[in-house]
């Protein structure tokens, strides 16, 4: 019975992993497929401007999301069959995001006129910001908590496929560069509407009005995760902004060119694993602390080996990848890509130590303190290395910051007698047992299609 239950859980995890991979493929890779064409039309300068605007708008997105992808997922995962709790959480998140969107507009609109960089290119920033409206109505956290992600994966894929086709026909000259974020924003809103309506109908969601007082109570309760997300953004997204301030749009273009290719690896491995594992591991921690820790320890070897090998492949293929995607104008991005190729490995370990373990053990405050310290280190490294070495310096700053944070999390867990790294789990016998549900599911899909 236990074996069947374990196999069933493994199959569900595999299905969610592949569903999230499809979501991330739609969100990141399909738009990236247009890059070889678009970047040759608009050039490095405009490509850098698009990414600079995206980095600024990330802060507004962060405010609206407020870490609900983690906290709301956790709440749903712990009571997946409680309809009243589901309605309560859904309504709280919806009205909280509406309030946060309103607050972000109060900051964004004046900034369009008061901040010189934004005032100089209003259309670009407005078109990029429109995507924030999709965050209010996209309940990915609900699907993640219920571990049912195949529908939202389909919505994402169809919308982004239409985006990819549209962008190739609409952006025809350099002056059309601002249309790229507009089309992307509209596709995200389309996905949000479809997934929202589907969720309400499929799960019989009843939307309950939520008072402002209750919203602020929720925001206060979940503040540590939100602050942690802000801190993480300080050393990931802010590096693009700092680079744009101390260098040029071309430097931003070279850095983001390498960064976007690294995001392909994140798209197919790290992020889907993180989002599919969080409710899966959260359920294990719900049973017992020991069960949750055991699950994380068992997964570390597989994820470590996979991301390390992937990083090595990227290092070898870096010159060819940059040439194919961006052309000869982006030669400096090869160095950036090679510096960043092992960032997914460090991020994956940091995610297992931090999100999957510390957050599930309610060590939110300690998680925040470590990321805050790391953000401080990252900002200092970012400023000096970006000023001295341009795009390559920014890449080194991010890599070193992630190493510092992941090491700090591991040291903290060890101090609490939580040992996650076990050499015995790196043996071939354990790894083959771990991937068995993946192989079983893939074989089933293949034979089904024959």
TrEMBL record:
One of its GO terms (cellular component) is plasma membrane. It comes from the Bacteria. Signal peptide: none annotated. It is found in: Cell membrane. Keywords: Cell membrane, Membrane, Transmembrane, Transmembrane helix. It is a multi-pass membrane protein. The chain crosses the membrane at residues 20-43, 49-68, 89-112, 124-143, 152-171, 177-200, 224-246, 258-278, 299-322, 334-355, 367-385, 391-413. Pfam families: Polysacc_synt. InterPro entries: Poly_Biosynth_Transport, Polysacc_synth. Its main location: membrane. This is PST family polysaccharide transporter. It comes from Arcticibacter pallidicorallinus.
